[in-house]
Each structure stands twice: as C-alpha cells, then as structure tokens.
Amino acid sequence: MIVHPFLARERLQVCGGRLLVETFNLVGIVLGDVIEPQREWTIDGLYSPIWGRALGGIRARVRDQKGFVSFINQRDLEFLLGIGTAGKWCSWLGEDYVDPTDRRWVGFCTDEEDLKDDLYARELDVRFHQEELTGSPVLPEGLEIDRLLGINGGTDVKELLTLRLDYDPLTGEYPDRRFTAVDTRWARIEREKFPWHRA
Q1: 149: part of which helix (H) or strand (E)?
Q2: Neighbours of 53 (CB within 10 A)
Q3: Per-residue pLDDT tens digits for 37-53
Q4: HSE-up (13 A, CA, CB side) for residue 9
Q5: What's the 3-state SS for 72-136?
C-alpha cells in the first residue's frame, strides 16, 4: 500500500488546501489509460482523503499529454502501480482490489470535491504569476480560467470559469486565499463536452 490513510494520518499533512506535503515518490509517474490506450496520465500531486467517501484514501491528481486533468482514488491507483492485485485483500480499505473490468472500478474521474482541489491549485498558480507581474497577489474580477477535465472514463469536458471577487465578503479582507471559499470566488460560465480525440 502507498499509505494507510486511517492509521498513518501524520503522513497526510497538507501544504495548501488538501494538497499533501508528502509525495510518496509518486509525482511524475506515468499511468496508462484503461479506456484510451494512447492516453497517458502523469501524477502531478497527491491530495488528502475526502472523509466519508466510500473509497477513502488519498487521491492523485493526474494530467494527460493533452492537458486534461483528472483524479484517481488510492485503491485503483495502487492497482495500476502494481501494488494491489485484483481479488487480493486491500487492508486499509477492508475489501478486495478490483481491476478495470469490475463494475466497482472507478479509475480516472472527478467529482465536485476533486474539481475544488483542482481549481484551488490553478488559483494558487495564477496568483503566483499575478504577484510576479504586478507585485500584488490580488486577482482582478472577471479573470477567466479555462480547463480541460476528465470527468469519468470516456467523458471529457472543457470548462470556462470567471473570478467573481477576490475578497472575503464578510470581513472585506483581500486577497481571499481561503480554500473553503474557492468555489464561491469562481463561477462556471460554460461547460461543454470536449472528447479527448478532438483536443
């Protein structure tokens, strides 16, 4: 196993939002896609578990060669890395590992919580560049970010988001760097299906 997410919580320290400090030597590892053989996903960050999810455990953010971003849960990641074998017991999860032919396989996908982590990572990057250019980390209202996302196996989308505000409406403090408010700072303007083979 990569890490026991329930017994080794001291190894799950975060450095911004839910991004883990420890990389477990996994950042930069390339994983093959189980649906599209030409597609390769590179791990670019590890994130803390979403407590209460059926498939707890850490999550890896991955980016493919065309710029699409997705996430993969710890159980399926361990299988793809050869750490777990289908039908063998996954001790931290309390059930067997599965392979991509099993209906319980999740694979590369994102939900709203993963999208929040991705958005926060993108915001931090934009804020860093904004400060380098202007000397201020405050982002201008109306700033737009577009992103390509692997939502689930075979479903890819392109999104456009815009910044509503970069201050805390209750306190007036700016810039607003709170992870908990990132999805209220940004609004999704549009989302369209954008198949991987078209990108």
Answers
A1: strand 144-152
A2: 12
A3: 999 999 999 999 998 88
A4: 6
A5: EEHHHHHHHCCCCCECCEECCCCEEECCCCCCCCCCEECCHHHHHHHHHHHHHHHHHHHHHHHCC
The neighbour count for residue 39, using CB atoms within 10 Å, is 19
Give the residue among 62, 58, 60 at the shortest CA–CA distance from 92: 58
Name beta bridge partners: 161: 145, 188
Amino acid in position 95? E
* Contact of 39 with 128, CB cutoff 8 Å: no
Contact (CB, 8 A) for 8 and 56: no
Residue 199: the pLDDT is 64
Q: Rounded CA gap, 166 and 180, in Å?
A: 13
What type of residue sits at position 132? E
User: Is the pLDDT confidence value at 73 over 80?
Assistant: yes
Cis peptide bond upstream of 5, omega within 30? no
User: Which run of H or E residues covers position 33?
Assistant: none
Confirm if 137 and 166 have CB atoms less than 8 A apart.
no
Short-list 69, 73, 119, 71, CA closest to 92: 73
Q: How far is CA 102 from CA 6, 56, 99, in A?
A: 25, 18, 6
